[in-house]
Structure formats: C-alpha cells, structure tokens
Design goal:
CATH superfamily of the largest domain: Adenylosuccinate Synthetase, subunit A, domain 3
Oligomer: single chain
CATH class of the largest domain: Alpha Beta
Number of domains: 3
Shape: globular
Largest sheet: 10 strands, mixed
Strand content: 15-25%
Bound molecules: guanosine-5'-diphosphate
Helix content: 25-40%
C-alpha cells in the first residue's frame, strides 16, 4: 500500500502531524523533494519538534525513514537535527539516505543570500537555504550525488567544471571572494564522513518492500501551490511538490494507492506571491494569534504567515492537480471563536467575471475573494474524541467544505497533538 501525504495549499497545512499519525501504522516513510527550507512541526509525548530534513516517521521505533533521491540533502542540517532528536527521543532512529540524493554545498546558500540581497524588494522571499541554486545545479549537471562524495577523483573533476562558473558570478555579479578547490574538497570530506552511516541503495530496499506489500508513506514538503509548474510561479519552490512526483522523488517505481491532501480549515501562507485570501488588520491578527500551536509563524523562518479564510478555489485546484483521494482538514479548532465563518467559494477577476477556477499568477494578483458565510459553533472542540461528537455547526462546516472541494474529507484534526484526530470515514 503506497500513500502520499501532500499539501493542498501553500504549505504549512499540518502535513507533519498527519504523517506522524499515519507513520504509526506504516513500515516506511519517505521524503521525496525539497530540503531544509520548510519545516514540519510534530508534537508528541517527547515534546515539540520542528523537523526540516528528517522524515516525520522518525518518532516511530518500527518505521524506516528514507530521504529519497528527489530531496535537496543538507548534510550539516540533517546531522544537527539527528542530534536534537537523539537528545530528547529515547529510542534508536531508523534512517537511510538514498545514494542518489544530491547534496547542498556551502555555496548554494551563499548564492541564495547574494541573489536575494541583489534583488532587494523584488526578491521571491527565499528562505536562503540554497534550494534554488541547488536545483539549478542539479539540472545543469553540476550537482553532487551522495555516492559521488565517495569518489574523490570525480569530485575533483566536477569541481574543476563548477568553480570557473561560480567564481565568474561571484566576482563579476556579486563582488564576492572566490571559492577555492581545497576548501571544497575539505568540505566534501566532512560531508562524506558525516553521511556515511546512513547511505544505502534505497531503490533495492524499496523494491523488496513492495514485493512484501509494506505500507509506505511518501511525505510532501510545501504545498501544491508552490509547485514550479502548477503553482504560483515564480513564487514557487524549485522542485515538484505534487503527488505525481512523489514516487519518482522517493525512488519508488509505483503508482499511488491513496493521495491524502492536507488542508487547513482556513488559509495561511509564508513567503511572497499572490494570496487572494489575505486578511489585514485586526481580523488577520486575531486569526493569526489563534492559528495553530505555533501562532502562525513559519516553522523554518519564524516569519508571520499571511492568513485568510478557507479558500475553496485554491484547495479544489490543489486537490485536483494531485488527484487527491482523501482530504485531511486540520486546525478546525482555531475557528471556534467565530460567530460566522466566511468561506471563499469563487474569485472575482479584474474584468468583473466570477470564476470557480484557480487562475494564472499574473491574473491572481488582482483577483478578489467571493465569500459566503456559515454559522460558527463557538465552543472549544479540542477535547472531542469522535467526529460524531462535534457540534452540528462544525459538522456542517466540514460538509460545506467537502462539497466545495469535491473530495472526501476523511479526517478532521482538532488540535496539534497526535491524538487530536477525528476519523470521518
Ligand atoms: P506542515 O509543514 O504542513 O507540516 O505544517 P507546519 O508544521 O509548518 O504547520 C502546521 C502548524 O499547525 C503546526 O504548528 C502544527 O503543530 C499545527 N497543527 C497541526 N494540526 C493542527 C490542528 O488540528 N489544530 C491546531 N490548533 N494546530 C495544528
């Protein structure tokens, strides 16, 4: 059984929590794209963890966690995270890294920072973790696969190709000092020794796992609307976030049996780009301060998230482009303070037309939300343990969203903890 857990929106939908819950009944959890530029927050009996590189199945002693070939592997960030988890989590962790994953080099964040500084206000809101320079190098065939680190002559050869390009840019465009081959060879040595205990040909392991019919979870990072092809390009990330990419980025040659799209009961986004749902002033501040356990500040960046009401246009699209089979609706408890809950059902475009469709980035900038309101429930629902016991207004809210999205809402999350999940199958 192969399941993907993906974001239906702009990221930060609560995928980490959902993966942590699903991991309890999974044999393998795999991260398939992105790097340490986004975080998943997990709260369990060992405390609260912000994971950036580690798969979210790491807190289940029986679960094998894999970093797949599609990931931007920041080895130093991974080592720091492993240390942090080991200090607070008493069980051994089971982690393997694909020998085909590529490595974020120290010059990738450097180029990210220099470019964001050069762009100034016109920047794309990068987290400056080096993700865009990393994926550019990967597809320009200038990257380093993990297995390459173990062959010094090929590293030297590659660096001799990479350095003239990087140094020309550093000197001419950024007026920065040049990179030296000896420093980079030293860096490669340290990366190699740190990652060595975890490296494996994960393709072979997964091939066997499929024959044995193991339960495998593929964990998305960021959300559908940050996909470079289908999202709000260029305010997108640099690798595909979508469920269709999940098997490829995982190193698993298989179709998906189930695609679980995670969406919040309201909208939130960190980073630049058009965000039709955006609220301002006191309304935004109230929703943000009630929002999520983290108070709506990004797990990686600490940046305040932009917030708005549930955007059915964006979510319908985010589910459709991933062929979602199920939806998990998170953070519904956050809305318990409202008398009436606004829902965005359509967009009004600049020419006055009303559309149910998510439009291209250039058109989105001037789109306005069309809103309908439904009654709120105004009681604390964080202690509810069965879906059936939710107030009728909360169940009506879920029914309304399900109808608008067109995909079954199979679970509702009513708090950040592992046990705050209500099945609605
Ligand atoms: P991810 O990147 O999709 O995993 O999302 P994040 O971890 O960045 O953000 C989700 C935030 O919402 C985290 O602070 C979670 O602890 C929190 N969270 C997840 N589900 C719920 C929920 O149902 N209710 C509340 N109040 N918080 C939640």
């Amino acid at each position: 059984m192969i399941k993907a857990i993906v974001g239906a929106n702009w990221g930060d939908e609560g995928k980490g929590k959902v993966t942590d819950v699903f991991a309890q009944s999974s044999d393998i959890v795999i991260r398939y794209q992105g790097g340490n530029n986004a975080g998943h927050t997990i709260i369990n009996e060992y405390g609260k963890f912000a994971l950036h590189m580690l798969p979210s199945g790491i807190f289940n002693p029986h679960t094998l966690n894999i970093i797949g070939p599609g990931v931007a592997l920041n080895i130093h960030a991974l080592m720091k995270e492993i240390k942090m988890v080991k200090e607070r989590y008493p069980h051994p962790i089971k982690l393997l890294v694909s020998d085909r994953a590529q490595v974020v080099m120290s010059y990738h964040p450097l180029f990210d920072q220099l470019e964001e500084a050069r762009m100034g206000h016109a920047s794309f809101g990068s987290t400056k973790s080096g993700i865009a320079p990393f994926y550019s190098d990967k597809y320009a065939k200038l990257g380093f696969q993990v297995q390459e680190l173990f062959h010094t002559p090929s590293c030297i050869q590659k660096l001799e190709r990479v350095l003239p390009i990087k140094n020309a840019l550093l000197k001419e465009l950024y007026h920065h000092e040049a990179l030296k081959i000896e420093d980079l060879l030293e860096e490669i040595e340290s990366l190699k020794s740190a990652i060595a205990p975890y490296v494996a040909d994960t393709f072979l392991i997964l091939k066997d796992a499929m024959v044995e019919k193991k339960v495998i979870l593929l964990e998305g990072q960021l959300g559908a609307l940050r996909d470079p092809d289908y999202g709000i390009y260029p305010y997108s990330t640099s690798s595909s976030t979508l469920a269709s990419y999940a098997p490829l980025g995982s190193g698993l040659m298989s179709h998906l049996d189930e695609v679980w799209a995670v969406t919040k009961a309201y909208s939130s986004a960190v980073g630049a780009g058009p965000f039709v749902a955006e609220l301002f002033g006191e309304e935004a501040q109230t929703l943000r301060s009630r929002g999520g356990d983290a108070g709506e500040y990004g797990a990686t960046t600490g940046r305040p998230r932009s917030v708005g009401w549930f955007d059915a246009v964006a979510t319908r699209y985010g589910c459709a482009i991933q062929n979602a089979t199920h939806v998990v609706l998170t953070n519904i408890d956050v809305l318990s303070y409202l008398d009436e809950i606004p829902i965005i059902t359509h967009y009004e475009l600049e020419d006055g037309s009303i559309t149910p469709h998510f439009v291209a980035t250039s058109v989105l900038w001037s789109a306005k939300p069309v809103i309908k309101k439904v009654p709120g429930w105004k009681v604390d629902i964080t202690q509810v343990q069965r879906y059936h016991d939710l107030p009728q207004e909360a169940k009506n809210y879920v029914d309304t969203l399900e109808e608008l999205i067109g995909v079954k809402i199979a679970m509702v999350s009513n708090g950040p903890r592992r046990d705050q999940i209500l099945k609605r199958l």
